[in-house]
Amino acid sequence: MRVSIDGEDIQRAVASIISAIGEDPGREGLIETPRRVAEMYSDLFSGLGKDPKEVLETVFEEGHRELVVLRDIPFFSICEHHLLPFFGSADIGYVPSGRVVGASKLARALDILARRPQIQERLTDQLVDSIVESLQPEGVAAVLSAEHLCITLRGVQKPGSKIVTSASRGTLRTQGATKHEFLALLSQR
């Protein structure tokens, strides 16, 4: 189910916001702003209606049963509370049950989930759950670290502070040695 973003509605809303802050939406520097914002929202929210499990469908029977880690995957999303960006990096690890997926597919699944109004905690859980449902690995974990502009620009105004979230399932949750191996690989920066 693909979601259609109504660009015309967004343009009207942005023009209304420009007026509401006391500016003239017809002023030369602002006249194209509603259209630009509508185009930007189309990109920022392009994950709406997409299923991340679809990009994880292509798997390879390799018999590999040891930890696989993809580190430092850049991502950005939009905080659903303030419609401000948050951005950072994700680390994903999984222990295959013999089936592996191309590394780029993990990054694409992250992008699909991130490109919708989000909170970081939900994004982390949705990413791990999508991998579990698609690959049926023995274990999976993800750690996301991100700076939130709602913390940087407003409220407490603490630039550089980051939120770190994690989620784990299966052996990466229950087996201390496997979890320790994952965390040790992440510390090798």
Fold and architecture overview:
The chain is of the alpha+beta class and 189 residues long. It is built from eight helices and seven strands. The protein has helices at residues 7-20, 33-44, 52-55, 103-114, 120-135, 149-152, 171-174, 176-186; strands at 59-61, 68-79, 85-95, 99-101, 117-118, 139-148, 163-170. The strands form two sheets. A five-stranded mixed sheet has the order 5-2-3-6-7, with helices on both faces. Strands 1-4 form a two-stranded antiparallel ribbon. The model has no long low-confidence stretch (mean pLDDT 95).
Number of strands: 7
Order of helices and strands: HHHEEEEHEHEHEHH
- The whole-number mean of residue pLDDT values reads 95
Any idea what the radius of gyration is? 20 Å
Shape: elongated
Structural class assignment: alpha+beta
Flag low-confidence runs.
none
